[in-house]
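Lay summary. Proteins are chains of building blocks that fold into shapes, and those shapes determine what they do. In this project we predict the shape from the chain. Here is one chain we studied, written as its sequence of building blocks.
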Amino acid sequence: MSDMLVNLYALPQAPTVAEGVRIERVLPPDFGKVLSFVKAQFSDGWAHECEAALHQSPPACFVAVKEHAVVGFACYDATARGMFGPLGVDAAARGEGIGAALTYRCMEAMKEAGYAYAVVGWCDEKQAFYARTVGAMPISDTGATVYSRMI
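And here is the predicted shape, written in a compact code that computers can read:
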């Protein structure tokens, strides 16, 4: 379980997303749709993290919408303050820049909220993606992470 650190004042250029995809902060009337998507496509654990992010003010969750359907989501400040994640994109919509656009938008929101850095938690398999998308750098892997407290 290794984490990565993102300097929010050194973000690369914003990525582009496929035409017809909108990235938006989740509105309260859509909480149920977003949670249903996360639970159906990913896991109960991610749905619980997403729910925690949704109950921040403003909601700390963004969605990708295509043809009035949720095709991706990304959260921050869910498991711990200053942490990014989880992030998920429907398998059928991958390769359209949605994950990168959601990640970038969350990083912008964190910067706007006053954070100087963001931690991307437990991203072992996705380190190259986060390095390329937002300039994330590995944090020394001591095995100690907020997720090591999970039951």
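What the prediction tells us: Residues 40 and 47 are 9 Å apart (CA to CA).
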